[in-house]
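<instruction>
Derive structure tokens from the sequence
<data>
Labelled lines for chain and fold:
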Amino acid sequence: MITFTDKAVEKIKEFSEDHPHTFLRVGVAGGGCSGFEYKMGFIKEDEYIEVTMNKYEQNGVIFVVEKSSEPFIAGSTVKWEENVMQRGFIFDNPNATGSCGCNKSFSV
């Protein structure tokens, strides 16, 4: 399971206003500077596939995590960061053994 900070939940709710009847999908894919990249995006409720995804809820936000990705991101905390240098979601991943400077990819 992953956890979102209060600010991240607030941003997800804000973004989802334009996407009714959707879930936030979280996963990883091969690629990036360090080997794996984080993936986040909205999917329609009818695109949720119980066999390949686990569904969670936190503070009114429903999100799904690809089962194949869970071992790589389990225990992660996702926060929203907005400053002069960057704006976006940041993963604090206890499974990562390394990451790139932009914090968008990681290695295990």
In short: The longest strand covers residues 22-31. The radius of gyration is 14 Å.
